[in-house]
Structure prediction request, 247 residues.
Amino acid sequence: MSQETQEHVRQMARWQVKSGFWTLTDLIDRAADAIDCEEDMSPVQAKRIARQIVIPLWEEQLTTQQSWAQEQTIAEKLERAFESLQRNHGIITRMNFACCRTCGVSEIGEDRDDEDETVGFAFFHEQTTEGFVEYPGSNIMVYYGTFPRSKVKAADVAGTVVRVLRRGRLSVEWNGETSRAIEVKCEEWRKRLMVQEGDSEEDDSDYDSEDEAEEDSEAEAEIAAGDEIELCDEELAGLVQEDSQTS
Prediction:
């Protein structure tokens, strides 16, 4: 794998690990997909390299978060505020939702039916996440809107979002213009990793032998397929020769 690809994948994995929005398995899969897009190698090889990149970053973050104070983080305050907006105010909320603002706005109401009583939505997307994780002190840009679209009602939704966020002891800026996002100040993003029961297995050395076995199996399948093609070619040549002799 090229040095450029390795650095790109490591940088991507680093902020995604620190964001706390993905499980270890998800992070490895995302890194493997990125490698597979850039390099000519088998999915098995890509996943092996992805584990080598992601797991040390994951373990480093686990160690780092052990030193965090017990006081609520910005991530926890934001999560509670979003839960309140959805539960008490009929506003669908999503964190780290979709890749960008355009996709987020188009996708956030997909599972909403006509009888749904939700009045609007609020979310921040993955590009925003990358920004405030990579650059401490960046603001969290919260986008909002209504069902159906209404500029007047959007202002009401935004006002509710701002009020609930401030009630949750978050520092918020919004100038009252519906064309502007709500900005939540974020000095440092801290979100605890989503540890799962099977995470330790991802770092198991047995994976290497399993990967090698899978690669061997794939190679054998390719060889067998090649032999079949070669055999078919030989049979075809024989048939052609028989036809020529008969004629």
Notes: Residues 160 and 215 are 55 Å apart (CA to CA). Residues 206-246 form the longest helix (41 residues).
